[in-house]
Amino acid sequence: MTHNPNLLKPPEHVSGLTTLNKSLFEKTVTLPCLVIKDVKISSVLPHVKKFLLKLDNFKPVRNISENEAHIYLNPDLVTRWSDLSADTPLLTESNLQMQTCTLTYDNFSLESVFRAVLPPQIEGTSSFTKVGHIVHVNLREHLLPYKDLIGQVLYEKVPNCRTVVNKVAIIDNTYRNFNMEVLQGDNDMLTSVKENKCVFEFDFSKVYWNSRLCTEHERIVTMVASGDVVFDVFAGVGPFAVPLAKKKCRVFANDLNPESFKWLNHNLKKNKVASGCCDSYNKDGKDFIMNEVRNLLPGFLNTKKVYILMNLPALAVDFLGCFVGLFDDSELVQEFDAPVVVVYCFAKGENCEQIAKDLLFEKVGWDISDKIIDLFRVRTVSSLKEMMRIRFKLDREILVKSGNQKRKQAPESGDLTAKKCCVF
Ligand SMILES: C[S@@+](CC[C@H](N)C(=O)[O-])C[C@H]1O[C@@H](n2cnc3c(N)ncnc32)[C@H](O)[C@@H]1O
Ligand SMILES: *[C@@H]1O[C@H](CO)[C@@H](O)[C@H](O)[C@H]1NC(C)=O
Ligand SMILES: *[C@@H]1O[C@H](CO)[C@@H](O)[C@H](O)[C@H]1NC(C)=O
Ligand SMILES: *[C@@H]1O[C@H](CO)[C@@H](O)[C@H](O)[C@H]1NC(C)=O
């Protein structure tokens, strides 16, 4: 048998199909198979495990009768006896035989179906995200003719999927939710996901949720210790706020979207967060900083470690000006452990670390290299667009009005006083 790289792929004639016709996927193949008689499967299996053929809904090990079993092997790995490990005890070359099988649509993975059907050239054909029972895709122009097929394949092949939606147009709206078209399944956007040992429920069409931020949420939840104080300026439905409050941090969580605010409160209850651990607000971030943060922060300085989370990568840096000169000299104790700002931004270009720093300095008003704790690449959004996280110390020099001369040296942006900040 010679190796045929297309053997396990759907038939070539499915290429370009826009309506799913499952019978077109039927394919008869001959596969390498160990036919064993009067030998225990369990004594052979450990030696051939890595060669087993893996297909959807396909059993590579089959009990044929009382004393006969068939073990199907991957033809990409095994075409002749010598491809198997040298020491396959109890068997000889005669055990390796060719068997005919009919593969159907059900035996091909969704990736292999998409690869066979959709145009090859462009990335992202099968990139989709699952949010509870909802699978969402962001189909580019060239894939729109295939949207019915893509919807149906995802609906059938992604476990526990009940709804497939396509993001319609890229709208950078205020609340960061998507405009969606249902491609397949129920028009039910109310969903539930688990993250960091908490349950989050929300209406996916009305709020922001990104499953790809799961590990970043986890990192922050781990970074902050019980008893610390957290101001979450752009809290969404609570992926930072809820687990932090659950681990007994003192949390103040805010979101401008009334729907996010509603689900944030719902999720606090749902996860049995003790009352008094988390206060929630439905305000503009600027208002939240100028009032809640301003009023509460002095009381925590020196007694608590304070974090200010700002996860709105497209805009959060524009809110940093709010912190500059937020207090008069006499309002803050002379020495304090500086609160840590955790701010996210997008860096578009080659040197994302430098780009993120420049953005930070521009928005604060001067070079604050001395206050930066670290920069971290969170994820690649697209080629040359990175989501970055910067942590820096919000020290007296930033927080107190007259306390700094450097502000006057701000690059072209002039004097960023508290009053002028946050204008977009
Ligand atoms: C990128 S989401 C992040 C949500 C959450 N922290 C997370 O990690 O999933 C940004 C959130 O900021 C909210 N938002 C947008 N503009 C805002 C503003 N001016 N003030 C307060 N919240 C705002 C949006 O409604 C959205 O929930
Ligand atoms: C599906 O393809 C088969 C050919 O394999 C054809 O006979 C059948 O009519 C097609 N079904 C539909 C609904 O187009
Ligand atoms: C392919 O999947 C179908 C549906 O689950 C299954 O019944 C069939 O046995 C599989 N084909 C092979 C060759 O195992
Ligand atoms: C295979 O099936 C026979 C009955 O058909 C049974 O006696 C035997 O134990 C089975 N072997 C395994 C490994 O399942």
UniProtKB/TrEMBL annotation:
List, alphabetically, the GO terms of the cellular component aspect. Answer: mitochondrial matrix; nucleus
Keyword annotations: Cytoplasm, Methyltransferase, Mitochondrion, Nucleus, S-adenosyl-L-methionine, Transferase, tRNA processing
What does the UniProt entry say about where the protein is found? Mitochondrion matrix; Nucleus; Cytoplasm
Known EC number: 2.1.1.228
InterPro entries under this entry? Answer: MeTrfase_TRM5/TYW2, SAM-dependent_MTases_sf, TRM5-TYW2-like_MTfase, TRM5/TYW2-like_N, tRNA_Gua_MeTrfase_euk
Reactions catalysed, as given in the entry: guanosine(37) in tRNA + S-adenosyl-L-methionine = N(1)-methylguanosine(37) in tRNA + S-adenosyl-L-homocysteine + H(+)
Q: Where is each SAM-dependent methyltransferase TRM5/TYW2-type domain found?
A: 128-396
Give the UniProt record's GO annotations in the biological process aspect.
mitochondrial tRNA methylation; tRNA N1-guanine methylation
Q: Which Pfam families match?
A: TRM5-TYW2_MTfase, TYW2_N_2
Fetch the Gene3D superfamilies from UniProt.
Met-10+ protein-like domains, Vaccinia Virus protein VP39
Q: Which residues does S-adenosyl-L-methionine bind? A: H217, D255, L256, D284, G285, N311
Q: Which GO terms describe its molecular function?
A: tRNA (guanine(37)-N1)-methyltransferase activity
Q: Which family does it belong to?
A: Belongs to the class I-like SAM-binding methyltransferase superfamily. TRM5/TYW2 family. Belongs to the TRM5 / TYW2 family.
**What is the recorded function of this protein according to its Swiss-Prot or TrEMBL entry?**
Involved in mitochondrial tRNA methylation. Specifically methylates the N1 position of guanosine-37 in various tRNAs. Methylation is not dependent on the nature of the nucleoside 5' of the target nucleoside. This is the first step in the biosynthesis of wybutosine (yW), a modified base adjacent to the anticodon of tRNAs and required for accurate decoding. Specifically methylates the N1 position of guanosine-37 in various cytoplasmic and mitochondrial tRNAs. Methylation is not dependent on the nature of the nucleoside 5' of the target nucleoside. This is the first step in the biosynthesis of wybutosine (yW), a modified base adjacent to the anticodon of tRNAs and required for accurate decoding.
Q: Which HAMAP family match?
A: TRM5 (MF_03152)
* Self-association state and partner proteins as the record states: Monomer.
What's the protein here called?
tRNA (guanine(37)-N1)-methyltransferase
Species assigned in the record: Zophobas morio
